[in-house]
Amino acid sequence: MIQRHFDEVSFRTRVQSTQRVPDSSLLAVFISNLVAAGSGKSLGQLEFLLRAVFRARIAASGLSARPVAAFRNSLSRFWERVMKNPVTTCFGILVAVVAASPNCWAADVNFLAGDGNFTTPASWSDNAVPSDDGDIYFIQDSLTSTFSGGIHSVTKLVVSDGSPGTLNITGGQLTVAGLGNDTFAIGRGCCGADGLVDVSGTAILRTGSADSSFVGQRDKGVLHIGPNAQVIGTDVWRVGQFGPVIDAGLEGNGFIDVEGSFSARLMFLGVDDGTGRLRVRGNGSVVLTDNLQPGVNTGFPTRSALIEMIGSDAFLSARALESANGAAEVKNQYLFDADAGGVSPITLTVAVNIDNNKVTVDLTDYALAAGTSIKLFDAPLPGEFPTVYGTIAELSVLGGVSPSNYYVTYDYANGDILLTRTVPEPSTMLLLGLGLSLAMIAKRRAHR
User: Fold this and answer.
1) Cα–Cα distance for residue pair 378/347, rounded to 1 Å
2) For labelling, which of 272, 324, 343, 409 has a CA lying 20 to 30 Å from the CA of 103?
3) Which residues pair with 257 in a beta bridge?
4) Using the 8-state DSSP alphabet, how is residue 179 labeled?
5) Chunked in runs of 10, what are the mean pLDDT values of the chain (448 residues)?
6) Beta strands in 242-383, from DSSP E residues, in sequence order
7) Among candidates 359, 363, 361, which has minimal Cα distance to 340?
8) Per-residue pLDDT tens for 94-130?
9) CA-based Rg of the chain, rounded to a whole angstrom?
């Protein structure tokens, strides 16, 4: 079944988004485990265990190489003195683990406006050019920062935390390279802390490779990607997370508007009672190497997920689309807005599950001939398993002829879901022809 394709990724990313253990708790757990595991072990074996934990913490911290290398050298000299003395061994363990925590290295740096330039030292509270030394950069207090050129990298960036903030990326390349959770967030705080990131011109925004990027995490967040701009990453994105059921006052409303190009690994829409929206328009392109998943946490009563494909030149591709809803749940929604060339189908490389979803097709600018179809979802040919799962619960057709003249076709043999216009019954054609004849006769008599 299709669920085999989704369960592992869904469970892994859901756990990563909801279970973050404070470093103090990690320390307590580590020491208790070390005591239990170290019973009867030599000091050399204990040192090996501690070094393994230290390496893991450094790898997860995203720290730059220079302070880490210096700390390793200091730690090596520390072993020579402390680990030889059983009395001070426990103290040595405590100091080393606390020092290995990434929170000991990061500082909060706030944007202060200055000349508004992202790369001007005076624009930041530390009076330094932003760098990837592990600090967390915040743009809020209703201020707007502009990144206009050059190549720069930071570890973590939050646009709007406790108050609104805007980041305009108009040129150059900005990389948010940190590892771990919350690397890049728009609209992270509460309440009324709306955030906007606008990537325009030929600018490039690069994101990390971890479970790291959020749009509308607790408040409203918008990411707009202009026609020639790019957002490039291999990370996991959550669009709209943490709504009012999670905590009073939370909005969790995320919107990604793509006219340029966007790439990532995995995307969730409408998570934990949030509202998630993805729009691809013009020549916009969205490519995910893993799943597109609006069907997560679907039991929340006020969550919603909307995917819009505007025109016939947009492109959206993912490994699989897991969008199933329960019969009584809020339905995931899809809008296909046709232009003169038709619509842009959603392309999947593995499978699609569309069960109990709502689909709207706007044919105002496109004439679909009787007996013909347009493709909405394009999955691959079936192999050992089917590639099309579920059925659409609600179909709405705007423009064109009566909505009753359209229906959904499930082409399981080719892995496609299509909108088809019916062919009129012979009796209907006869009546139509008779009506036209009578109209012509009446018109001739009127001219006599």
Assistant:
1) 5
2) 272
3) 224, 279
4) -
5) 40 35 40 45 43 44 41 42 46 45 68 90 94 92 96 95 95 87 87 92 90 90 98 94 87 96 96 95 97 88 94 98 92 97 98 97 96 97 94 94 93 97 67 50 53
6) 253-258, 261-264, 266-271, 275-280, 285-288, 292-293, 304-310, 315-322, 333-337, 346-353, 358-362, 373-378
7) 363
8) 444 444 444 445 789 999 987 799 999 999 999 999 9
9) 28
Dihedral sign of CA atoms 153, 158, 163, 167 in order: positive
Query: Is the peptide bond prior to 191 cis by the omega test (within 30 degrees of 0)?
Result: yes
Q: H or E element: which one contains 137?
A: strand 136-139
257 — phi, psi (to 5°)?
Answer: -115, 115
Distance CA 295, CA 271 (A): 9
Q: What tokens were used for 232?
A: 């490039």
Which H/E stretch holds residue 395?
Answer: strand 394-398
- Conformation bin of residue 114: beta by default, left when phi > 0, alpha when psi is -120 to 50: left
Specify the amino acid at residue 289.
T
Spatial separation of the C-alpha atoms in residues 292 and 393, rounded to whole Å = 20
Rounded Cα–Cα distance for residues 199 and 119 (Å): 16
pLDDT score recorded for residue 191: 83
Residue that is written with structure tokens 């409203």 in the block: 220
Q: What is the pTM of this model?
A: 0.75
* CA–CA dist 230, 260 (Å, integer): 6
Can you tell me the distance from the alpha carbon of 320 to that of 338, in angstroms, rounded to the nearest whole number? 23
User: Which residues, in sequence order, are CB contacts of 314 under 8 Å at separation 6+?
Assistant: 280, 281, 282, 283, 284, 285, 344
- At residue 43, the pLDDT reads 40
Is residue 297 within 8 A of residue 271, CB to CB? The reply is yes
Sign of CA dihedral 293, 294, 298, 300: positive
Token pair listed for 260: 């340029």
Note the residue count of the chain.
Answer: 448
Residue 276 carries which side chain, given as an amino acid letter?
Answer: G
Token look-up 């893993």 returns 290
Burial 123-155 (b: 16+ CB within 10 A, else e): bbeeeeebebbbbbbbbbeebebbbebeebebb
Residue 195, phi-psi category: left (phi > 0), alpha (psi -120 to 50), beta (remainder): beta
